[in-house]
Amino acid sequence: MRVCVQFQGCSVLTNLARDVENRVVIAKADGIAAVMAALKQHPMDADLQELGCSALLNLAMDPNNKVAIVKVDGIAVIFAALKLHPTRVGVQENGCGVLGRLSYHNYEYQVTIVKAGGVKLLVSGLKINKTHTGVSLKCCLALSYFTKSTTWPPCNTIIDL
Question: What total number of domains does the chain contain?
Fold first, then answer.
């Protein structure tokens, strides 16, 4: 599908997913899969990556959508967007936001993200975009979820940086 169509679709889904009920409707209509397909088909298009991450950020406010996002390889796709667009603040802010939202109160996803190199990726985004408040906030918030417990073994990854 053409990137301009997918861009508009992600834009509409971003706006609609601000509403609690719409998040459920979008998920039931395979909207998460559509966003993921767009992100996978056009990894080099920073505008699309920014809007796709924004849509996922809003959709991830629903606990069931978190599961759906992870199930369709969402963590890897967000990682790819962050790695391919390190200086694009919208991609960094939204992508870090999605990782944080997936991690919030979810030990399994915290471990998955940390073991996949998420801490270093978040710190890299923070360093590169240190003057952007939104990126700093989302990166630090996501990182804070990985440090809540001193008994949690992957927490040592942060200390070793």
Answer: 1
